[in-house]
Amino acid sequence: MPTAARENMTEKYVPMWKSLDMDIEKHNQLLNGLGQYYTNVVLPQRNRPKAMGYFDFVISEIHGLRVQELAELRAAGKKVIGAFCIYAPEELTYAADATMVGLCGGADFSVPDAEAVLPRNLCPLIKSFYGFKLNRTCPYFQSSDLVVGETTCDGKKKVYELLNELIPTYVLEVPHKPDTPKGKESWFKELEAFKAELEKVTGNKITAEKLKASIELINNKRKALKRLSDLRTKSPSPISGLDGLLIDQIAFNDDVKRFTAKVNELCDELDERVLNGEGVAAKDAPRIMVSGCPMAIPNWKLHSIVQDAGASVVVEESCVGTRYFTNLIEPKGDSINDLLWAIVEKYSQIPCACFTPNDRRVKSVKELAEQFKVEGVIYYTLQNCHDYNVEAVKVERALKAKDLPMLKIETDYGTGDAAQIKTRVEAFLEIIKGKQ
Ligand code: BJ8
Q1: CB–CB of 248/344 below 8 Å?
Q2: Mean pLDDT of residues grouped by 10 in the chain (436 residues)?
Q3: Nearest 5°: phi and psi at 345?
Q4: In this structure, are residues 384 and 123 in contact, taking their beta carbons and an 8 Å threshold?
Q5: What is the C-alpha to C-alpha distance for residues 374 and 312, in angstroms, rounded to an integer?
Q6: Which residue minimizes the CA distance to atom 6 of ligand 1?
Q7: b/e sequence 346-374, b meaning 16+ C-beta within 10 Å
Q8: Does the C-beta of 319 come closer than 6 Å to ligand 1?
Q9: At CA 118, angle to CA 116 and CA 121, rounded to 5?
Q10: Residue 84 CA: which ligand 1 atom is closest?
Q11: 159 lines ligand 1 (CB under 6 A)
């Protein structure tokens, strides 16, 4: 966003941010940094679809207009529920007439504040979100009436205890063998308990009718994202990896109906591009899958490096990516129990590395590689994320058997290693080109 526009926005929303008890001075620093980063990294991309204008607008107003919408919802008596994981059931939240927003941290900005309390050798995603709550610069945290954590990785689980000192934090007990009868039984009970909690917090009863409607609402969002993802299987891809990632990130914060409509509008434009054989990268640009830890806003580091090196990221095997939208919820009946069981079935198929065994993910990586005609996989691990770090062994073996090269990148949110990553990515792309 141009500096003048940013300053105007800052002025306009100060009273709202103050009412949310935000640290205005620190928040200004954050906005300036984010605005410049977006202007330097995302906006200069060539040949972007016209419909990306909406998503650029969303980002430019991500701490403004969208937060104002949430304030209006709250003024009308509705609740905002913050979440950190795609296991937090959006469908139940919307069925309670509440709104869910993503709170995962993707910025280095808040990490020093978190490190004043937490150990340094902890995953940056966790330090980032905890720091944002500590330093009061995230309007989504400040707008949340309740946050929902989950027992996935140890780092998150323990930080939720500390987070609960700052904001009411409800922790879902996610089974670590979710795809077993015992796991599903236990997840069903957790959903029942979460339903009761939502009813208590919102004062609204979750009826079968409401839950059915919200399942359809979220299914439609997932369908639109899947449609967009399917378009990236085309060669050349009609949209850049960075823009694809951006939309997957925005999916966790925008108004669901509007977002779904805008993604479908974008897909209509991309359909045209595909018909005309129009793409965003050179026809022979290596097609890359990024697989691993989720990339929360504004984590665009790896994608921009890969794109600048002349490759095309065509798919993210990630929770900010295929893991979020691959499966829909398909109820087999109309009762609350039927609907809850349908949610259990869908969520227990999410192949997160926190669970064991997680062969479903290895299978998914292999299938996506074929479907997207991928020529190489960049395995992305955040520092100190043991689950994804260890699971790289199995993924690499599976890819080797398919003669697909894999590059493992372990990084944080800082820019200190960008030059080194760039060199490694360039060398990796040379290997791929040698095979073309
Ligand atoms: S379902 S991937 S969104 S837990 S915070 S595990 S990076 S050490 S985010 Fe996740 Fe749900 Fe699983 Fe998906 Fe590692 Fe960091 Fe833990 Fe992380």
Answers
A1: no
A2: 61 96 97 95 97 97 97 98 98 98 97 98 98 98 98 98 98 95 97 98 98 98 98 97 98 98 98 97 95 98 98 98 97 97 96 96 98 98 98 98 98 98 98 93
A3: -60, -45
A4: yes
A5: 10
A6: 153
A7: bbbebbbbbbeebebbbebbbebbebbeb
A8: yes
A9: 110
A10: 3
A11: no
Nearest one of 94, 159, 155 to 132, comparing CA atoms: 159
Find the 139 Cα to ligand 1 centroid distance in Å. 22
Cα-to-centroid distance, 85 and ligand 1 (Å): 7
Q: Is the Cβ atom of 85 under 6 angstroms away from ligand 1?
A: yes
Q: How many CB atoms lie within 10 A of CB 165?
A: 8
Q: Give the pLDDT confidence score for residue 264 in this predicted structure.
A: 98
- 397 vs 180: CA distance, rounded Å: 25
Q: Contacts by 4-7 with C-beta closer than 8 Å and gap 24+?
A: 5/60, 6/31, 6/32, 6/35
**Closest ligand 1 atom to 293 CA:** 7
Residue 15 CA to ligand 1 center (angstroms) comes to 35
User: What is the distance in A from the centroid of ligand 1 to the CA of 352?
Assistant: 7
Place of tokens 């990024």: 290
Gap from CA of 394 to ligand 1 centroid (Å): 18
Q: Is 314 helix (H, G, I), strand (E, B) or coil?
A: strand
